[in-house]
Amino acid sequence: MTMRKWLRHEWIRAGLPLWKTNQACGVKNAATRKYFTGDHLWYFPPPDAFDALVRYANAHGKPTGYRNYHWQHLREAKGDSTVKHPVGVQPSPRKSDRIGDEPVADKGGNFGRFARTGLMDEYLGRAKQELLAGIRAEYWLSFFKIFQDQRDPATIRQEIERLRQGVESSGSHPSRIDAALMVLQGIEALMGST
Which residues contact 151 (CB under 8 A, 6 or more apart)? Predict the structure, then answer.
């Protein structure tokens, strides 16, 4: 799909008529003539106009959102990817009102699981590299996971050993490695006293 077709598709998917693009950009007719034309005169809107279009579509368009788009177009499912939208939704719904979109077929209960879209993978990868008290966040996560679900001491010791090997091969500054290893030794000493 070309960028020209994609832009028109997304605007229409938001349920907005094309003439509203002019209102979104604050122009008389330039948006429909330039950014949403279907012929060779098309060109991509400048960043400020594109931002205005996105904001307008988010504020005034149908609330389909990324979740539904991912479910219907990106996940490459073999089954039915239709999403049912609730009918007759009113402002200030009661707690018992069914106001959420629902997939026609979702045996695994995966609809709306944001983590499965991959949208945050790059961000999470960078966040795990951040230093917290001199130790990369990925090692803190590994450390806290060791003690989840009331694991038995033997399993905890195995996990600590695996963590120790990861710290030693991390390529971090030697003083940081030494500090992390001292913490792990302290934990092992505490476990030995229980």
Answer: 159
Residue whose structure tokens are 């098309």: 42
d(CA 25, CA 29) in angstroms, rounded, equals: 9
Phi, psi (deg, nearest 5) at residue 99: -115, -5
Taking the C-alpha atoms of residue 99 and residue 59, their distance in angstroms, rounded to an integer, is 18
Residue (of 15, 5, 2) closest to 37 by Cα position: 5
pLDDT tens digit string along 97-146? 887 788 888 877 777 776 666 666 777 888 898 888 777 888 888 888 88
Residue pair 42/34 in contact (Cβ under 8 Å)? The answer is yes
For residue 158, the surrounding DSSP H or E stretch is helix 153-168
**Three-point CA angle 25, 30, 34, nearest 5°:** 105
The Cα 83–Cα 23 span in angstroms is 30
Residue 125 tokens, joined? 């990868």
Angle, CA of 16, 36 and 8, to the nearest 5°? 55
